[in-house]
Design a protein that fits this description.
The chain is an alpha+beta fold. The protein is 24% helix and 33% strand. Helix 1 links the parallel strand 1 and strand 2. Bound molecules: biotin. The site of biotin has 20 residues, from helix 1, strand 3, strand 6 and strand 7.
Amino acid sequence: MALEINWYKTIDSTNSEALRRIETANDFTTYAAKFQTSGRGQKGNSWESDAGKNLTFSILIRPVLLKAADQFLVSQIVAIGIVDYLKEKGLVAKIKWPNDIYIEDKKICGILIEHYLSGANLSVSIIGIGLNLNQKCFASDVPNPTSLLLEKGEEYNPELELERLLLIIHEYYIGLNVKSYKTFKEKTGIKYQECMYRLMEFAYFQEEETGDIIEAKITGVDKNACLMLEKKDGSKKSYAFKEVRYLLNY
Ligand code: BTN
């Protein structure tokens, strides 16, 4: 399959570039940058990446058959695709809900997805991915970062790695690009859950609203893409993104 990849030496943000191209871009077009001057992360954070060292790219997709209510499926296929890609590199990666990719307790990849709707369906999703390949030192305020180089001791070619990763993600994308994706959704949900970071392990979390610290285990993700936690007394609660945070070193 011929992938459409547009490489930029320097750009503000590949997600912003994809958005500028939203009217005309073909389905599954990729915008990749050697360096982003205003890379964006989740929760309004910036995304730092040394020039030429890592993968910073965005895929514009048109998943028009996907119901808006099922938009988490896009996150799931991308996260699973990255886990598969890292497995090929000999690494066991886990998905820290909703879509950070971790090696043990270190973040190797962040994902920022922006959805655009048309009625009850999706029209466009812009999938921004920052995957650390060859960076060794990170700014001190980045929590527990790692890279393929730090994990494997080898240098990686960004162009080649991007092509491989895109092929893997594209394979999954085909699965949700059909009218009846019910079975695919079920299978994807199971695979996503199997890959979840700290699944069924008791750990500490903080509720954002109350500030309360709770000890609980992740039991999965519910139909609304919320994180399901269960305390030691058996009580259960689901949390939306930004309603709870992991306390990694508590
Ligand atoms: C996170 O905070 O974990 C998400 C980081 C997403 C970063 C990527 S890099 C390529 C794309 N362009 C951006 O501006 N952000 C995403």
